[in-house]
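[Help] Beginner question about ligand-bound structures

Sorry if this is basic. My supervisor gave me a protein sequence and a SMILES string for adenosine-5'-diphosphate and asked me to "get the holo structure". I don't really know what that means in practice or what format the answer should be in. Inputs are pasted below exactly as I got them.
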Amino acid sequence: MVTAAVEIRNVTKTFDDLVAVNQISLQVPRGTTLGLIGPNGAGKTTLLRIICTLARPDEGDVWIEGRSIRENARAARSQIGFMPAEFGCPRSLSIAEYLDYFACMYGLNTHERVQRIRDVCELTVLSGREQVMVRGLSTGNRQRLLLAKTLLHDPSVLILDEPASGLDPRARNELRAIIRTLASLGKSIIISSHILPDIEDISDRIGILEAGRLVLEGDLATLRASTGTSHRHVRLRVPAEDLSRARVVLADLPGVTQCAVREQTIVLTSEAANSNYLLAALLRHEVRVQQFVEDETNLEDIFLRSTAGKVT
Ligand SMILES: Nc1ncnc2c1ncn2[C@@H]1O[C@H](COP(=O)(O)OP(=O)(O)O)[C@@H](O)[C@H]1O
Ligand SMILES: [Mg+2]
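Answer (accepted):
No worries, everyone starts somewhere. Holo just means with the ligand present. The predicted complex, written as structure tokens, is below.
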């Protein structure tokens, strides 16, 4: 039997009379990345803390590489690297001292520590900065250091809670590239974020949480299909004299459900898997295409469509 890296089954967690996580089941196949999105208070952090054995579920269980967090929390934990959203950093240490401190806590010997610290600095693009003090680090470098610490014991499962919050665009890109590298090394990753384009870019599958419930889950195509947002919107500009001919050609094509001219622009909706054939038909009819813009539904559209703005 192929076990998922993380198997979450019917997990519920209540705080007094608030159901923060409500009957959630999810799987993360080995080597894949699951993106978790949802409004503030949706239960993302609570779910991630349960997976990391930092909070106990009231009901349900989680298996990490086949080991139950209820029955064998220590073994499950040894496979997990957790990067929490809020994280105190002792500022009077250098990067190397900081990492060495945690590597000691993981029980690594001197030789292993030197090697692992070198490896994690390389992975998080901190090599050469080992002697820099934590105090002076930019937010981007600090997040990379926290990720480096998360990788010290070489966990197979990474749980990253909003690792990119507060980062500028360049730091975000750098972090996203590092996460992609980790995925390509075969890590199984769960990442929560409010930065939907990043989640769309790095996740194999996406889970949308709202008020403790999993409202949608799947790859982007599945999410598009289940929210009825799989059609494409295309905007075309052609010379005025080609306009009506172009509209007639397009309106007749299979998959085209709407085709109108608005302010010298053709606006159409298509249900086809791609839009190349639209362009091909226009070229066949010698229409001079000046602009062809396709807007596919993105994760933000799906998110807005599938959540009602409920908070717990
Ligand atoms: N330790 C706690 N005690 C009481 N309520 C909590 C605790 N942790 C989280 N909550 C509540 O649970 C809900 C989900 O919170 P959280 O998991 O942090 O959501 P998210 O990470 O999606 O913003 C919120 O309403 C929050 O106030
Ligand atoms: Mg949170």
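A couple of things worth pointing out: The CA atoms of residues 259 and 268 lie 4 Å apart. Residues 44-45, 85 surround magnesium ion (ligand 2) (CB under 6 Å). Feel free to follow up in the thread.
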